[in-house]
Specification:
4 strands, 148 residues, 5 helices, mainly alpha, two-stranded parallel sheet, single chain
Length: 148
């Protein structure tokens, strides 16, 4: 069962309005809809279901700043997860999308093959620092939407 809170559908959660009305979202024939069919836009990482492309991107970002994945592996896997996200029609709200796009723009200027790097390309250190900044922005979004 999905409920709608602030325009977002949440699986397996319940919420009652101030008037005591239980919020739910079902199809006309009574079947619960899932996030893929609803085409919802997530506002923060805490709202992203596991198994999605965005969830994988976020996981990879954390692995990178923790030093558990190399920058070339991060770049390849993150871009693959982005493609999955786009293919699945996963959507993000503006602030969330901006932080993820900032990582994409860094990767757009990053050469996975060190032998092909130019002095103007993003370095490994700059990529890690940029991802760290994006994670800080995303953490702030989690705090903003946690109690919504």
């Amino acid at each position: 069962m999905f409920i709608v809170i602030d325009g977002l559908a949440w699986p397996n959660r319940s919420r009652t309005t101030s008037t005591g009305t239980r919020l739910s979202l079902v199809t006309r024939d009574g079947d619960p809809q899932d996030w893929r069919r609803l085409r919802l836009a997530w506002a923060c990482p805490a709202q992203v279901p596991s198994g999605t492309g965005v969830a994988r991107q976020f996981e990879l970002m954390n692995l990178l700043v923790q030093g558990k994945i190399s920058t070339p592996a991060f770049a390849r896997d993150w871009l693959s997860a982005r493609r999955t996200s786009l293919d699945n029609g996963e959507r993000l709200r503006e602030s969330f999308e901006r932080a993820m796009n900032n990582v994409f723009y860094l990767l757009d200027n990053y050469s996975i093959d060190p032998s092909l790097r130019n002095p103007s390309d993003v370095s490994d250190e700059a990529l890690i620092e940029g991802v760290r900044y994006a994670l800080e922005d995303l953490s702030a979004l989690d705090g903003k939407y946690r109690d919504s």
